[in-house]
Prior knowledge:
The strands form four sheets. Strands 1, 2, 3, 4, 5, 14, 15, 16 and 17 form a nine-stranded mixed β-sheet that branches. An eight-stranded antiparallel beta barrel has the order 18-23-21-20-19-24-25-26. A hairpin with a 2-residue loop joins strand 15 (407-412) and strand 16 (415-419). The longest helix is centred in the middle third of the chain and has 23 residues, at 428-450. It is built from 21 helices and 27 strands. Helix 12 crosses helix 13 (341-347). It is α/β, with parallel strands linked by helices. The structure holds zinc ion (ZN). Zinc ion binds next to loops.
Amino acid sequence: MQTIDILFLNAHVLTMDDKMNQYNRGAVAVNGDSIVAIGAEDELKKEYAMRAKETIDCKGKILMPGMVNAHTHVPMTLLRGIADDLRLDVWLQGYMWPVEREFASPEFVRLGTSIACGELIRSGVTTFNDMYFYEDDVATATAQAGMRGVCGQSILKFPTPDAASYEDAMEKARDYIKKWKGHPLIIPSIAPHAPYTTTPQILRETADLAKEFDVPLHIHIAETSFEVENMRNENGMPVIPYVRKQGLFEAKVIAAHCVHIDMGEIRTLHHAGAGVSHNPSSNLKLASGFAPVVKMLEAGVNVGIGTDGPASNNDLDMFEEVRLAAFVAKAVTNDPTSLPASQALLMATRIGAQALHIGHLTGSLTPGRRADLILVDLSPLHNSPSFRRSSDNAYAQIVYASKSTDVTDLMVNGKWLMRDRKLLTVNEDELLAEAADIAKKIDSFLVEREQSILSKLIALGGSSEEESFEVQIKVRIAEADPVIQALMRNDIDIIYERHYRQHDIYFFFEDESQGCLRYREDDFMDSVKGIPTKTRSRLTLLGRKQEGKFEHEILLSRSRFLAPATNSPRFYREYFIPKTEMIIEKDRLRWFIKYKDTEFYVNLDKVTMPAIGYFLEVKSRTWSRKDAENKAQLLNELLEVLDASKGETVTNDYIDIIGKQ
Length: 661
Ligand SMILES: [Zn+2]
């Protein structure tokens, strides 16, 4: 007689299978890593009681498949609570990325993952779908904890904590997938972060890699309306047609969020067999909007439920997430019959597993599937009493009344990870101590960074210090024509001429010694048509201090920090939190000239907002102070040549003039 390992008896079994079979006094037989049989207790007893090595009395608890967390970033447990109540871009670029650049390492990732596994096991999750850096270490820690994980190695177009370039990242991803492919618990995958953080080439290549190894491809799609708006502006189409164009859907896609998509895009997802992760807490907290969950389900798309990373949720509690998914769907459709409890729970189990393309392995209690299951205690007061008139009562009880803390036992792949609320594969005390240690270090890193505008600017990446000396003078003039005439002289050699409109926003801070931050948009004007041809945005931190003054109020300044402004003024306002700001607009004619073998910039500005008239600015850049002094002499001469020496000298900048008025 063939033996089996465990026979579960006296359970209320929710199979979550194709027929939604329920057994109020049910039993489940498990052998090795798989489920052998499910059914009414008396029937299974007859069949298996004599050959079970162990019989477990479930004492009337719910026995159901473990939950599937369809989208998360598990190592980010270590970043939870760092920065909250911010917009997605400020949160991500201002806080998450800089901290990750500084701290993310294989050790960091293993620790964060182990903590997440403990939390996930406690809340009844047996499988999760991850995306992060050092995914090999995420997979290692996940396998150690005994959980099932679809672990996606992130690919971005810029350098990441674990890869200097995307080519480097692709190579690592290939090795990583090769290493883990076929593991009993880990399904390796590739994760191009999002369309806006990758390139068409990256999307193409990651899809090819996923196809080559037959592994899932995990990506963020249409999370914010801002993302969709940018995509339309830049590529003339919404996000899903764009990724389809790059061949993404040739792979087994898991698309996280899909908040801002239309019916056509939903049909594309369905047609492509893509899975979706709906992340209600994250979408609510970041005010991303409401995903068309009911429409997606109606169209036949496999929509699972995910917590998203614990830094944007801030927990990994799937009980809370399922409940929210049901509630939000009702509120958004204005229909309380939308997304009933049974369907919400299905999204968190079988449909979730299908969305991850592993429905053949887990997600329901079905003979042949892996033994990934949980026991839920319905005896606490908040769960009482229990009604069994309708089969829906049990689903409603789990979704609307139960809490994750009601999960008492959890098994993955036939192995216990939690018994009677005791974690068996994760050492909580050790993890707590290590997490406190890291938190202290991150805290002091951020405290230091937040002290200066400069370090906050550098934290965004891409900025560079310009250590040049600059001699400059600014003179107020009555009219522009005499200067333009003077520039035609033979002893002035015009190298090039430009015309642009400048829109400047100056941000000022409580502490004036920090200098001020200028957000500048240059619209380059077509000299013939007089319309803007291209725009360049830059961010400059201007020190208020000058190195020195020369005769005729010529200034010598030094050291400015420059960065391309890749974000909107709104982003910088929310990130730097200035005390006040000022807008200055001007029409600028710029000549780059050679005068007595020395190169100068001549700027003729008409300040239009506020309307304060014409200014002439002459400056030259150099690398040494000595050279600057020589040029200052020459600049005096040039000023007379330009007939501007009679003008009123402006000591500092437009800010000062406007400030005085
Ligand atoms: Zn995410």
